[in-house]
Design a protein that fits this description.
The protein is built from 34 helices and 17 strands. The chain has 825 residues and is of the alpha+beta class. Strand 2 and strand 3 form a beta hairpin.
């Protein structure tokens, strides 16, 4: 884009907060108010001084004059004088510029956009030979028509088309101005070279352009100087390395004795040279990797401050384009983060060199753990931002070193996402490539279809799943278990006319009951949302919804529970889980003509509202209902709801939800029945891993101190393993309250005592539960690795909409923890 237009979110907030006064329009603004509004709305206030001074458009000129306190009349007069315009035309252009600034491209209404564009086109028709009118129309096309190639074509016709396209590109940075030149003269390297700076380095479009330019640069039609050939070859090397095409990158290095060899080597910065060394090592060529590492060492450390040379951010100025250096400096693609990176350059260089040294000369006596967790260090952008090769080269190198040195848990597995992303980017680039040469389209497709280097797939985790085969088999049998309640049509006398639900927005049937004040006895109900209740003499039945066994994030209130009282609400029996979840597929009506109690059964009016979890937009601004039906009820015998086949104090339905065996009181056979066991699938044992103690610290950080995670193995508790394991658990009446689902290796939990129940899952079980039950968001510990000497560790975790990275360190025999990063959606 030609210039930044501010933050979209802020603009949307401003628009949404603007008062609507349809009946009483505001009074017209005074001239002074118009100028003040222009200064407030113009995005020029956010630009750098260099960009401000370099722009030749009317908005920049008016902004500079207005900042000096100039009146509207003087602004019109000065504009007429600057461009030798009739006073009336200057006034029109000032008014149009003010209007364009007020109507942001992201929030402008279609009718307003078309009106502005038609006014600019009318002026261009009236004054076809005025350059300033053509320029302003080009800016309007950039802003409001997303650089439409067809619209810009009308401005660049005639004998001077090539020069005009280059000139307008220097003003707007619209790629669609340059791509038609590749079709008209596909054998000329300079037109492909002009596209090199248009897109991000290493993107399919940029890589294809630089490959084409490099291929044609020395041909008779290319006709570019050797200096330009050197610049293009350096750009290609950087693009290939950034995209992760290590074979193509090393093939592009000029051979010794070639005219390009010495100047290309001299033009490569220290990070380029270290990246080439990494590329050779990833190819298995240790000799070439060592040679390039030595070449990197030849550059003095003081040269690290030359960010533009090392990261390639200034390379766009080297090509035969009409873009000026000031344009490149103003472009946020090249300037973003530059001010923040120099302070990290020296440490980055030293650490990358250490990585290469460890790769080239393994030393079994040296533990690489501190070096391997570079990617998780606090303020990791200190390493990522200044080095364009971090993800494409250094991450795979770190992964392979982690595998080699016995830390597979630190390696990132290849899930195929990178090749898919490249293909999507290439498809989009082809779709957006206006009037491109067929050879360029083919090159874009090749840049997207060729698979770059992927990280090595990790070996098995450091710790096994930790669960006996019998326990795993019992859990797996419950993965697809669901409550099967009888569905019946609602009697005609109990039906209530209801509005049609929207297929995507759903309706308000899951909303709270209209009762504004819950009864006094509601405080005795389990935590959650009171959905519906009925009082029948001294007998009370209440239905609540909670996420105790149904972690669904922001989607809904969770699953439905039933609480019963036989003494008018003085006491309630432990809540009973129904196995029903909001929107999976039912929603319980908060009000109904059908009585809840029918002897020893419940008759619950429901609406069938089955949603498609794959299409849910979170936070739930849209709930895509794929099946909808009203006037239904389900019959639930209370005896079936309370069934406890193994007599352990947990209902069969609750045990099924927790993947416990409802026919065996002690699923993990460790001496603690399921109702009292805080880790009912993890057998108590005195032979525990060294992960247990730091895990207790991590769990208290992630889940809060209320979890009360402490290490209580038999060795610590001085008793039987089961006795030690039971320490810290709640009362026998706990039921399923406070249950947390956690994806992590079960072996880590050996010897840990908790104050509420944790169900430990494998990633495969998590996926199976989501497939069977719909949306399911457990907490996940995706990485947990300790150094060989047990003094350091790193943990990566996530919980629905938040997550983070924790760095662990053992000091004087005690584990300490630092939060290295935190994210939230």
């Amino acid at each position: 884009m030609r210039r930044p237009r501010g933050v979209l979110i802020a603009c949307l907030l401003l628009v949404s907060a603007w008062p609507v006064m349809a009946d009483n329009p505001p009074p017209p603004e005074s001239n002074a108010q118009k100028v003040a509004a222009f200064l407030d709305d113009s995005a020029i206030q956010f630009e750098s001084v260099a960009a401000h001074d370099a722009r030749p458009d009317i908005e920049h000129a008016l902004y500079a004059w207005a900042k000096q306190g100039t009146t509207l009349a003087v602004l019109r007069s000065r504009l007429a004088e600057k461009y030798a315009l009739p006073p009336a035309l200057a006034g029109q252009l000032v008014d149009l510029t003010f209007a364009r600034v007020q109507h942001h491209p992201y929030t402008v209404k279609p009718s307003e956009r078309e009106q502005l564009l038609s006014q600019y086109r009318a002026l261009h028709t009236q004054y076809p030979n005025l350059p300033i009118i053509r320029d302003e129309l080009a800016f309007a096309i950039e802003d409001y028509e997303n650089c439409s190639g067809a619209a810009l074509d009308a401005l660049v016709q005639g004998a001077e088309e090539v020069a005009q396209r280059q000139r307008f590109y220097s003003l707007t940075q619209c790629q669609s101005l340059l791509t038609p030149l590749t079709a008209s003269q596909p054998e000329h390297a300079k037109f492909y070279a002009a596209l090199i700076a248009v897109d991000d380095v290493g993107s399919p479009m940029q890589l294809a352009s630089v490959r084409m330019a490099d291929t044609l640069v020395s041909s008779a039609e290319g006709g570019l100087s050797q200096a330009r050939q050197v610049e293009i070859r350096i750009a290609r090397l950087r693009a290939e390395l950034t995209a992760g095409f290590v074979d193509a990158a090393t093939d592009a290095i000029p051979q010794a004795g070639s005219p390009l060899h010495d100047p290309v080597i001299a033009g490569l910065g220290v990070r380029d040279r270290l990246a080439i060394a990494a590329a050779y090592w990833l190819q298995g060529d240790a000799r070439s990797a060592a040679a390039w590492r030595a070449l990197a060492a030849q550059i003095p450390v003081s040269a690290e401050d030359d960010q533009q040379r090392d990261d390639g951010s200034g390379e766009e100025a080297a090509f035969d384009t009409a873009a000026s250096a000031s344009d490149a400096l103003a472009d946020d693609r090249f300037s973003s983060g530059r001010e923040a990176t120099p302070y990290a350059a020296a440490s980055l260089r030293a650490n990358l060199d250490r990585l290469l040294g460890s790769a080239l000369a393994p030393d079994p006596s040296v533990d690489l753990f501190p070096l391997l967790i570079l990617r998780y260090q606090k303020h990791e952008d200190r390493y990522h931002a200044p080095d364009p090769y971090w993800h494409s080269l250094w991450t795979p190198l770190l992964d392979r070193l982690a595998q080699r040195d016995g830390y597979p848990g630190l390696a990132d597995s290849d899930d195929g996402g990178w090749p898919k992303l490249r293909r999507r980017e290439a498809e989009q680039a082809i779709a957006n490539c206006y009037r491109c040469a067929p050879v360029l389209l083919a090159a874009i497709r090749q840049a997207g279809e060729s698979a770059p280097l992927s990280p090595a797939a990790p070996a098995s985790a450091t710790a096994p799943s930790g669960l006996p085969a019998a326990v795993m088999a019992r859990m797996d049998r419950q993965l697809t278990a669901t409550a099967q309640w009888e569905e019946q049509p609602l009697p005609l006398a109990s039906r209530t006319p209801r509005p049609q639900s929207h297929p995507e927005r759903g309706d308000d049937i899951a909303a709270r009951s209209e009762r504004s004040h819950p009864p006094a006895w509601a405080r005795l109900l389990p935590a959650g949302e009171l959905v519906r209740y009925q009082v029948d003499g001294s007998r009370i039945v209440a239905i609540t919804a909670s996420q105790r066994l149904d972690p669904v994030g922001e989607l809904s209130s969770g699953g439905y529970w039933v609480s019963l009282s036989s003494d008018g609400g003085k006491t309630f029996a432990p809540p009973l889980y129904t196995g029903l979840r909001v929107y999976q597929p039912y929603v319980i009506r908060p009000t109904s003509r059908l009585p809840l109690l029918d002897g020893e059964s419940l008759r619950i009016e429901v609406a069938l509202r089955r949603i498609d979890p794959a299409k849910v937009m979170l936070p739930p601004i849209a709930l895509p209902v794929v099946e909808s039906k009203d006037d239904l009820y389900i019959r639930i015998p209370l005896a079936e709801l309370a069934r406890d086949s193994d007599g352990d104090g947990l209902s069969d339905l609750a045990e099924q939800a927790m993947l416990l065996d409802p026919t065996v009181a002690d699923t993990d056979a460790d001496g603690l029945d399921d109702a009292h066991d805080p880790l009912p699938q993890v057998p108590a044992s005195s032979a525990c891993s060294h992960y247990s103690e730091p895990l207790a610290l991590v769990l208290n950080q992630i889940l809060g101190k209320s979890l009360g995670a402490i290490v209580t193995t038999a060795a610590h508790a001085g008793g039987e393993p089961a006795q030690g394991y039971a320490l810290g658990l709640g009362t026998a009446e706990q039921g399923a309250d406070g249950t947390t689902f956690l994806v992590a290796p079960a072996a880590y939990f050996c010897g840990i005592s908790l104050q509420h129940r944790v169900i430990v899952l494998t990633p495969a079980q998590q996926s199976a539960l989501a497939a069977a039950r719909g949306v399911f968001y457990p907490i996940e510990i995706s990485k947990f690795e300790l150094s060989r000497d047990g003094s350091q560790g790193v943990v990566v975790w996530s919980a629905t909409f938040t997550g983070g990275t924790l760095l662990l360190k053992k000091v004087n025999g005690q584990w300490t923890m630092e939060e290295a990063g935190r994210w939230i959606t």
